[in-house]
Structure formats: C-alpha cells, structure tokens
Amino acid sequence: MNLPESYIPILIQAGVAIGFVAISLLGAHFLGPKQKKGNSVKNQSWECGVAVEGNARTPFSIKYFLTAVLFVLFDIEIVFFYPYAVNFREFGMQGFLAVLTFVAIFFVAFFYVWKRGALDWDK
C-alpha cells in the first residue's frame, strides 16, 4: 500500500488519538472505583445533605435544549473572529469581505431562528 507522504502525519495523529482514548477507557475501567451491588445507604442520592424530592427523570422543555444548542452555535461563531482580529491587517480587503460574508450568513441564521419563535420564552 503506497500512501502519499502527506497522509503520514494525519495517520500518526489519528493513531495517537485512538490510542489515547483506548488507554483512557481501559484505565478507567480497571483502575477506577468499583460500585458495589445492592441498595445500601451509601449508594443513595444526596443533594447537599437534603433529602431527595421527586424524580430525577422529569422531562425538560425542548426550549431548554434549543437554547443551549443556539448558544453553542453563536458562541462558536465568536471563536472564529479571534484569528481575524489578530491578523486583520494582513488579510486586507479580501479578508474583510470574507468575514463580512461569514457574519451575514450568521445574521440570516439568527433572524431565521428569531422569526421561527425559538427565542420567545412565552410560548
């Protein structure tokens, strides 16, 4: 099998990542604490020393998860501004237009989400 030389670093990085995950999972399984079977007092839930109230599996509104996903989406957008802010003089007008296009796409997405009512908490 003949691989181009440019693939070798990618394969090494993938191998290291897979090896790290495998070692972490096996290490956690064999070296981690073992949970005893049974219904002892030690295995019961505690919330800051206060007795547990209700069921932990009560359903959440989908609005909670939608808000979390939207927050992550628009928060990640901000991360992409950092390289531009550091190198904005080197990018020139072409870089400015690229960032302007990027922001325009996210504004369209934001207004779409807004018009669909995802940001209305009263509904």
UniProtKB/TrEMBL annotation:
The gene is nuoA. It is an enzyme of class 7 (translocase). It catalyses: a quinone + NADH + 5 H(+)(in) = a quinol + NAD(+) + 4 H(+)(out). It is a multi-pass membrane protein. Keywords: Cell membrane, Membrane, NAD, Quinone, Translocase, Transmembrane, Transmembrane helix, Transport. NDH-1 is composed of 14 different subunits. Subunits NuoA, H, J, K, L, M, N constitute the membrane sector of the complex. Its EC number is 7.1.1.-. Belongs to the complex I subunit 3 family. Pfam families: Oxidored_q4. It is found in: Cell membrane; Membrane. This is NADH-quinone oxidoreductase subunit A. The chain crosses the membrane at residues 6-32, 64-85, 91-114. NDH-1 shuttles electrons from NADH, via FMN and iron-sulfur (Fe-S) centers, to quinones in the respiratory chain. The immediate electron acceptor for the enzyme in this species is believed to be a menaquinone. Couples the redox reaction to proton translocation (for every two electrons transferred, four hydrogen ions are translocated across the cytoplasmic membrane), and thus conserves the redox energy in a proton gradient. Its main location: membrane.
